[in-house]
Amino acid sequence: MSAASEPEVYSAGFGHEFESFFPESGSVDLADTSTNITETTVAELRQIAARYPQPRSALLPMLHLVQSVDGRVSPAGIEACAAVLDITTAQVSGVATFYTMYKRRPAGRHHVGVCTTALCAVMGGDHLLEAVEHKLGIHEGQTTADGQFSLERLECNAACDFAPVMMVNWEFMDTMTPSSAEELLDDLAAGRPVASTRGAELIGWREAERVLAGFPDGRADEGPAAGPASLLGLDIANERGWRAPAAPDDSPSQTKQEAK
Q1: pTM (2 d.p.)
Q2: Which of 59, 38, 39, 40 has its CA nearest to residue 48?
């Protein structure tokens, strides 16, 4: 094993040790203190917190707002969330490092995810990921030197009927192939408009993060909501005149009649 891949050893304090082969997998980059957070950002964080009966429930969308501003979960963003919610920075960090949608290092202008779980893998997801890595010149978990693209291996996106599926800035790109993925990346690199298979025209990752923070861009109904594969069963039922059984009448009067 090379020195670069040697595991880091931790002591639990009780005479036991365990090895971690991913010593930085859960850490926020505390060395990068740069931030774009302003008083306006803090005011918007307070606006999000005010939407919830328990302000701490606002932490998830607040972290998305931090990412929309800083391109990652920044130390300054953690401190701002903690101050607004009156909780510790450790509590904020615990949430930020638990969910994979929160990035510990700067994401690209376009964040690309390739699903390689179950059916997507069977349908070529791993080959698709390799093609995207080769095209971008990076590996999963990395960002291109120009900051335009970051890449992630995704777990199931609940789009098995369109496998293999990619996501770009959290929008679906269905039934992808290496060639269609390369064409997509070329269009994004050139600044040409790209529409999601089942959604709106793609915007930047930071802009998408702002939407997830609860600041709509007015485009929720843009593009189709479902594709042919998802609607196939409904189409067959309509063609054959199939209908679901009528629901039982559970009204109080009916219940009383049955009781008699």
Answers
A1: 0.80
A2: 59
Q: Rounded mean pLDDT of 187-209?
A: 94
Letter for the amino acid at 55? P
Q: Using an 8 Å Cβ cutoff, are 169 and 110 in contact?
A: yes
Distance CA 94, CA 86 (A): 15
How many residues can be counted in the chain?
260
Over residues 54-77, mean pLDDT = 96
Average pLDDT, the chain: 87
- Of 102, 103, 98, 78, which is closest to residue 90 (Cα–Cα)? 78
Domain residue extents for the chain? 39-96, 110-203
| Separation between Cα atoms, residue 70 and residue 32, nearest integer Å | 11
Please, are residues 182 and 136 in contact by the beta-carbon 8 Å criterion?
Answer: no
For domain 110-203, the CATH class is: alpha beta
- Measured in whole angstroms, how far is the alpha carbon of residue 247 from the centre of its chain? 37
